[in-house]
Design a protein that fits this description.
- The structure holds 2 protein chains of 2 kinds.
- Chain A is an all-beta fold.
- Chain A contains no helices and 11 strands.
- Chain B is an all-beta fold.
- Helices cover 0% and strands 52% of the residues of chain B.
- In chain B, the strands form 3 sheets. In chain B, strands 2, 5, 6, 10, 11 and 12 form a 6-stranded mixed beta sheet that branches. A 4-stranded antiparallel beta sheet of chain B has the order 3-9-8-7, with no helix packed on it. Chain B has a two-stranded antiparallel ribbon with strand order 1-4.
- In chain B, a hairpin with a 5-residue loop joins strand 10 and strand 11.
Chain lengths: 116, 113
C-alpha cells in the first residue's frame, strides 16, 4: 500500500524557535497533502491543504503566518511552526491522497511537538 | 459544511464478543465516501473500512462490517469476535471525492480479556 512518512517523530524545542516537520510520500506522487493537528484525547482537526506548486489553503482560525506550509515537490510537504509557544505543543499528522482510490487518505506516523 | 458525530466517547466489550460503534453525519451532497479509521496507542491512523455512498451494499472487511443507512445519515461499525488488538480510538470520517477528510470526535474502544 501507499506509504507516507513523517520526520521527525518527536521534537522538543524552546519557546520562540521555529520547527520544521517533513511529510513524504515514499512510493507515490501526491499532488495534495493535508496537515492535521491532534490534541490529547481529541480528534484530528484539519489545519491546511497543501497543493504542489501553489499556496496552501488554510482552515478558518489557523494562522498562515505561524504555520508555514511548503509543497515544493510531488513527494514532499513541510510544515514549519514559527516562533513556537507552549500552546503549539501537539501531535501533527500529515496525510496524502493516493490517486488510485478516490477519497482515501494515507497517513504519516505523526510528529509530536513539545515546546518548552 | 459537513459534520460527523460520534456520540459514544468510550465503549468496552468482552474479548470474542461483538460491539457496534455509532456514527452520524450531516451533508447535503449525494455522492461521498465514509470511512472508519483506527488509531492505536502508536497514533498511526489505520484505515479499517470504507463505504461509497452510491453503493447500497454494506462494506465488509473480515471481522469488520458497517451498517450504512443513507437516508438516516448513519454509518455504524460492527466488530465481530473482538480481539485484544482491536483496542484503540476509532474515528468515523467523511469525504467528498478528492476533498478533505472530516473526522468525528472518536470512540475509545476497550477490549476486556
Amino acid at each position: 500500500g501507499a506509504v507516507v512518512s513523517q520526520h521527525p517523530s518527536w521534537v522538543i524545542c524552546k519557546s520562540g524557535t521555529s520547527v520544521k516537520i517533513e511529510c513524504r510520500s515514499l512510493d507515490f506522487q501526491a499532488t495534495t497533502m493535508f496537515w492535521y493537528r491532534q490534541f490529547p484525547k481529541q480528534s484530528l482537526m484539519l489545519m491546511a491543504t497543501s497543493n504542489e506548486g501553489s499556496k496552501a489553503t488554510y482552515e478558518q482560525g489557523v494562522e498562515k503566518d505561524k504555520f508555514l506550509i511548503n509543497h515544493a515537490s510531488l513527494t514532499l510537504s513541510t510544515l514549519t511552526v514559527t516562533s513556537a509557544h507552549p500552546e503549539d505543543s501537539s501531535f501533527y499528522i500529515c496525510s496524502a491522497r493516493h490517486g488510485g482510490e478516490p477519497g482515501e487518505l494515507f497517513f504519516g506516523e505523526g510528529s509530536r511537538l513539545t515546546v518548552l | 459544511a459537513q459534520t460527523v458525530t460520534q456520540s459514544q466517547p468510550e465503549m468496552s466489550v468482552q474479548e470474542a464478543e461483538t460491539v457496534t460503534l455509532s456514527c452520524t453525519y450531516d451533508t447535503s451532497e449525494s455522492d461521498y465516501y465514509l470511512f472508519w479509521y483506527k488509531q492505536p496507542p502508536s497514533r498511526q491512523m489505520i484505515l479499517v473500512i470504507r463505504q461509497e455512498a452510491y453503493k447500497q451494499q454494506n462494506a465488509t472487511e473480515n471481522r469488520f462490517s458497517v451498517n450504512f443507512q443513507k437516508a438516516a445519515k448513519s454509518f455504524s461499525l460492527k466488530i465481530s469476535d473482538s480481539q485484544l488488538g482491536d483496542a484503540a480510538m476509532y474515528f468515523c470520517a467523511f469525504s467528498q471525492g478528492a476533498q478533505k477528510l472530516v473526522f468525528g470526535q472518536g470512540t475509545r474502544l476497550t477490549i476486556n480479556p
